[in-house]
Every structure is written in C-alpha cells, then in structure tokens.
Amino acid sequence: MSRPLRLLYPGAIYHVTFRGIERRTIFRDDQDRTRMLKAMEEMAGRHKVRVYLVCLMTNHVHLLLETPRSNLPAFMGQMLTAYTVYFNQRHRRVGHLTQGRYKAQVVSGDEYLLKLSRYIHLNPVHTKEDKSLPPADRAKRLRAYRWSTYRGYAGRDRAWRWIEYGPVRTMIGHGTGSAADYRRYVEAGLAEGDEEFQRIYRGASLAVGSEAFRQDVERRHTKLGLNRPKREDVSFRRTLDRRNPEAVLDAVCRVFGVSRDALRRRQRGAASRAAACWYLQTEGGLTQREVASWMGLGSGAAVGYQIKRWRAMSGKGPFAAVAAKLQKVWDHS
C-alpha cells in the first residue's frame, strides 16, 4: 500500500507528532532531550521554519510549526536523521528509532490553534498518574516541567530564542495576551476540559479546525491523490521564496570579493566556499547533494562539513559582519 500524500503549501501550520518505534523510549536522559532541541533549532534555522510550540515526552514529541517555504519533509527528515544518528551512536544501537512516518495535521490559524496549544502544553500532566491528582498539584507539576515551551509562554523561564511566541500568545485578550493571560488560559484546562475540542482532535486525521476547514483539506487531499498518484509529498502551490542558486552565488562572490572560479576552487580554510554551501542550502533550498554539484564537491558529507564550518565562523569576528551583510542582501531582495 502506498503512503498517503503529505499536504504541503507555503505558510501551512502543522501539528506534528512522532513516537518511538513500538512506543519505546526515545529520550533516556536530559542529554538526549537537549540534543533533540538542538537539532530542532538548527534545522528550523536552516529551513526557515517557524516553530511555535514544543513538548518532549518520554516516547513521543509534539510540535506546532509553520512552513513559509512549504518544506516540512526536508525539515523533519534532516532533524530526525540527525537525532537518530546521535542516539544510535551514543546508546550503541542500530535501526529505526521512530515508528513509521511522523504525523502532520494541518491546523487552521484561529481558535483551534489556541486550543491545540493548550492541549500540547498539558501533555506532561495527562498521564494516568497525574490525572488522579488535584488541579493545583497538576499545575505545580506542569510549571516545573522543563522539556516543553510552556514555561517560556507562561513567564516562568527565559524564552527560547528560536521559538515564535507572539502568534499564539496574542490570540488571547484581543491581541494583547500576556504571559499571565496565557498561563491562566492553559491551566484552566486542568479543571475544565474542552470536550468539543477533544472530540474534534480525536477524529482529526488530516486537519484540526472547523468542519468547513477540515472538509476543504480533505477535498484537496483527495484531489492531489487523483492527480499525482506517484508522489509522496505534493505542494498545493509552488513555493515562491526559494532563491535562484545563481543569484545566491553572485551575492556571496560580491560580498567576499571573489570570482565564481575562486568560489569553486579547493582552498584550505576558504570562508567564501563554506558560506556558499550554507546559503545555497538555506536561501536556495537545495539539498546537500545538489549543493555538492554546484560547488564541485565530491559528496553531501563534504557539503555538511563546509556548512558546519560556516555556522561556527559566522558568529565570530569579521565573519559575523560578513554574515550580517549577506543577511541584508536577502532581506532586500
């Protein structure tokens, strides 16, 4: 049986979940959890994904995110691969870590988005053990849970720099929602569950939203299945903001003051070469294998090495200024 099509379009908001194979543990300690968050942060920056919420449980993960570039498979694939390689090496295991494909529900950007955020943030106190506790005790446990974005939303901890807090929080109080407002909204759900939302969520396979929204997503899904049966991942419409690789390379050459030939020439420690690899991927939307072809490198692994170099260099000294100049190019083009 072929896999169902993935619904992709620029600006789509998704509730993504994935769990350990056979519901096994995917985080054995805090080092594992920290590494997963690091992988999320890195890939969100690379693919320009806007991450709104995160909740790490012992054997599964919830994410609420938006993909301006219609590139959910690239983001999720690289993030899960990076973490699986780390986990298997550290814990001396082999094989798949997660169970099948991740689940991605399209979410309407209205009241359902806010209700879903509460559902996700309450996950740490939805265990059988916690459900037997009084609401006050569950609230205390929720506020102490470190491995979700709730503490940052509720003003209990420093905000994670790579999380977009504003869009969800401003849905409370007619656009003026504060950390205290959001905390009251979420923790009210400990005492009074939203049965209507729970019913909609349990019955949602493709989308979370109003009946009209869900029907529209299902209609588009069916249409894509009929028209493009051989593709696993299909966009509703073309992504418009990926840059032409030629334009990316021209900008890098101009800012570094080098020729295109010099950019492709193998030269030990060449920052321009490392930067070109990084921007071909992040701005051009190319895979590492495609970047290797453009840059005359032998493999995607070689590109990965160059990208790692530029990430380390671009935050320090004169290269930080170069990175800022290039960012201005992208912002004004």
Description:
The model is unreliable at 228-240 (pLDDT under 50). The chain is globular. Helix content is 52%, strand content 11%. It has a 5-stranded mixed β-sheet with strand order 3-4-2-5-6, sandwiched between helices. Strands 1-7 form a two-stranded parallel sheet. With 333 residues, the protein is α/β, with parallel strands linked by helices. It starts with 5 loop residues before the first strand and ends with a helix.
List SSEs in N-to-C order: EEHEEHEHHHHHHHEHEHHHHHH
Overall mean confidence score, pLDDT? 84
Structural class: alpha/beta
If helices are DSSP runs of H or I spanning 4 or more residues, what is the number of helices? 16
Q: Name the beta content range.
A: 5-15%
Summarize the biggest pleated sheet.
Answer: 5 strands, mixed
Widest beta sheet: strand line-up = 3-4-2-5-6
Low-pLDDT residue intervals, each spanning 5 or more residues: 228-240
Radius of gyration: 22 Å
Tell me the overall shape: globular
So what's the oligomer here? single chain
Helix content: 40-55%
What is the number of E strands?
7
**Span between termini:** 44 Å
Brief summary of the model shown:
The chain is α/β, with parallel strands linked by helices and 333 residues long.
Topology overview:
Layout lengths: L5 E3 L3 E8 L10 H18 L2 E7 L3 E8 L4 H20 L11 E5 L3 H11 L6 H4 L3 H10 L5 H4 L12 H4 L9 H10 L6 H8 L4 E2 L2 H17 L5 E3 L9 H12 L3 H5 L6 H12 L5 H8 L4 H14 L3 H15 L2
Parallel strand pairs: 1-7, 5-6
Antiparallel strand pairs: 2-4, 2-5, 3-4
Helix pairs in contact: 1-2, 11-13, 11-16, 13-14, 13-15, 14-15
